[in-house]
Amino acid sequence: MRTLNPILLNKKDFISYGDVLSTQNSDSIVINDGYAQKHFNLATLDATQNGGKSALHIYVAKERKFPLKINMLEKHPYFSQAFIPRSTKPFLVLVCLGEESPDLNTLQAFITNGEQGVHYKKGVWHFPLISIENNEQFMVLDRTDCGIKENKIVECIEHYFDADIKINLLKEVKCNELS
Amino acid sequence: MRTLNPILLNKKDFISYGDVLSTQNSDSIVINDGYAQKHFNLATLDATQNGGKSALHIYVAKERKFPLKINMLEKHPYFSQAFIPRSTKPFLVLVCLGEESPDLNTLQAFITNGEQGVHYKKGVWHFPLISIENNEQFMVLDRTDCGIKENKIVECIEHYFDADIKINLLKEVKCNELS
After folding, report:
1. A51 touches chain B (CB under 8 A)
2. Contact check, Cβ <8 Å, B56/A32
3. Which of A71, B57, B99, B176 has the highest local Cβ count within 10 Å?
4. How confident is the model over A56-104, as pLDDT tens digits?
């Protein structure tokens, strides 16, 4: 059995997969006559191939149980995808390199610091949303025509496997690291 | 002097200006093997005219002082714009109809219920972000090339006026209504 221990999400280690969405370590300017600090261009959404449009959804997530068994990964060949939590609760991110199929040797789990969101590049292998808390709201950005039959694109490629892989959530360690 | 009292934000009264972004009264499906409820297509972002791309920013807002004097409105001719608070705190929205200039007879102030965000249609007159709390984070969706000189578009048209208009924040009423 292989057990993955998440590391704290950071720009450097996530760069192959996409963007960390955060006011920390980002460029910003003062706007609105001093009433807002704009942390700009944290992500450029990539959804326009084959006539697509960027769309906003809200996911209400259920908590996952740990250790979490990993038996699949998915990717979206026609759009990038962003997840931003509304709360200040951490969540988990599991990503993997590979083209036609995921290279499981490159599996990497991250835990956010509560403020961070993520933006997966188009085509990056990842596990679906992993919330630690129940009824967490996430803002999700991808593409409008997912699931609309009249203008169908391949919205999701799923890859299942038999490897015995689990993600640990060391809650005590995590809370200490994040505090 | 003219005083505006915000009404609670709702789809019906906001339809001329754009979308209310909320899990309430929205279509949803179960995804992720039961681990997420997806409230889908709450907004279709409109930023691609003249080669634009949708972008995500985070604004950290300062609290406004009330009554708030209104002496300008702005609009963005090349993109729609969404604001979603990360907290569960209400914020104010001030919108107006009109083409070349705002028709001040149609000024309408809204207060959100804490869960809601807003998406202004392209070209809708509005007042900049009105946060009631200090250091509130808002996810903002519009367009990447704002302010980039090499690919400059008219990102913002501002209209100033002399009318003596103020927005009241009846905090006690608001809290009762929202609770």
Report:
1. no
2. no
3. B57
4. 999 999 999 999 999 999 999 999 999 999 999 999 999 999 999 999 9
Give the CATH H-level superfamily of domain A2-177.
Ureidoglycolate hydrolase (2.60.120.480)
B21 touches chain A (CB under 8 A): yes
d(CA B131, CA B68): 11
Neighbours of A142 (CB within 10 A): 25
Partner A contacted by B47 (CB < 8 A): yes
ipTM of the complex: 0.92
Model confidence, pTM? 0.93
Cα–Cα distance for residue pair A178/A160, rounded to 1 Å: 33
Angle value at C-alpha A144, between A140 and A146, nearest 5 degrees: 90
List the 70-89 stretch of A: residues with Cβ below 8 A of B: 82, 84-88
- Pick from B162, B93, B96: nearest CA to B130: B93
Residue B131 and residue B86 in contact, taking contact as beta carbons nearer than 8 Å: no
Q: Which pLDDT tens digit goes with each residue over B5-36?
A: 999 999 999 999 999 999 999 999 999 999 99
Between CA A2 and CA A167 the distance in angstroms is 9
Buried b (16+ CB within 10 A) or exposed e, A51-69: ebbbbbbbbbbbebeeebe
Per-residue pLDDT tens for B22-79?
Answer: 999 999 999 999 999 999 999 999 999 888 899 999 999 999 999 999 999 999 999 9
Residue ranges per domain, chain B? 2-177
> What are the structure tokens assigned to B34, written together?
């039961």
- Subunit contact B57:A39, Cβ cutoff 8 A: yes
User: Is B156 in the A-facing interface, judged by CB distances under 8 Å?
Assistant: no
Helix, strand, coil fractions of chain B, as percent rounded to 5: 15, 45, 40
